[in-house]
Write a structure and sequence with these properties.
Layout lengths: L6 E5 L7 H14 L2 E5 L14 H19 L7 E3 L5 H12 L3 E9 L2 E4 L2 H10 L4 E5 L9 E5 L4 H17 L2 E9 L5 H19 L7 E8 L2 H8 L6 E6 L11 H11 L4 E4 L6
Parallel strand pairs: 1-2, 1-4, 2-3, 4-6, 7-8, 7-10, 8-9, 10-11
Antiparallel strand pairs: 4-5, 6-11
Helix pairs in contact: 1-5, 3-4, 7-8
């Protein structure tokens, strides 16, 4: 379960939607002693001057400006700046693979009635096509760093990886860590499922508890819907982070984690840490 990232990739579109994500990326890189890379993917387009390299220069300037803020205002060194041409999600994931990122940090915003993550299509594409963990930090969401990290832990491989990475985030942030399992309220063997989930969560918590690590607690929640139960479990005073596995199917509640992660993306302003089963890092 040792998933501490040594390289973090911060993906930016140069808009205010990326500002809070920028702070989170810099904070985790500093506290976790990880190398921080910055990427801005630009798309070719027509300019007034018609100069062929204008788009490239603008893209490079956006990435360089973000790196300048991170180094001069946030006090975090930037290992490298990347400004590739192409589709944003594909470009972000390509750079993540090239630098061996253990974590991708993206921002998100809400525009009017329709949610546009950095926005919507780009961030969601990154999340659902990435083989690497993705941290989504919303512009209109809770402040960073979190005071409490909640892990939706269905005990499948991706959830265990999420727990390990969430423990690292909690340690970097001085936050408490809580492992939460959801048991279907309509399960005829509900009491047995609660007891089994509690036992297995305690086993995971024992592996995560270290002298220098966060305080770890466990909780089993009974409910008919995993996503809403997790949102409710993460609702408390103070800033929160919610972490879940982003692939696979739930052991205790027969729904796809893809559906859970998508629901969480669309229906919570909490920072979300989404971790797939396997990483190519």
């Amino acid at each position: 379960m040792n998933t501490d990232p040594t390289t973090i990739l911060f993906a930016t579109d140069g808009t205010p939607a990326s500002q809070r994500a920028r702070g989170a990326a810099a904070h985790l890189a500093r506290a976790g002693n990880a190398a921080l890379h910055v990427v801005h993917v630009w798309a070719p387009g027509t300019t007034v001057s018609g100069a062929p390299d204008v788009g490239e220069r603008i893209g490079s300037a956006v990435a360089a400006s973000e790196a300048h803020v991170i180094e001069d205002e946030l006090g975090c060194p930037v290992a490298a700046v990347h400004a590739p041409e192409g589709s944003r999600a594909h470009g972000i994931l390509a750079v993540a693979g090239a630098v061996g990122a253990g974590l991708i940090v993206v921002g998100g915003r809400k525009l009017g009635v329709v949610e546009e993550l950095f926005t919507y299509r780009v961030s969601e594409d990154v999340i659902h096509h990435s083989l690497r963990p993705v941290l989504l930090v919303r512009q209109d969401g809770q402040a960073w760093p979190p005071q409490r990290v909640v892990v939706g832990c269905d005990l499948l491989p991706e959830a265990l990886r999420a727990a390990g990475l969430a423990a690292w985030v909690a340690r970097c942030s001085g936050a408490a860590l809580e492992l939460v399992a959801i048991v279907n309220s309509e399960d005829p063997d509900r009491d047995q499922a609660i007891a089994e989930a509690t036992r297995r969560l305690e086993e995971v918590a024992t592996r995560l508890r270290t002298e220098s690590g966060p305080a770890v607690t466990v909780r089993v929640v009974v409910g008919p819907d995993v996503a809403s139960a997790l949102r409710n479990a993460a609702t408390a005073t103070g800033s929160q982070l919610l972490a879940v596995g982003a692939r696979g199917s739930s052991l205790l509640h027969r729904v796809t984690q893809f559906s859970v992660s998508r629901s969480l993306i669309h229906h919570t302003h909490l920072p979300l840490l989404l971790v797939p089963r396997a990483s190519s890092a």
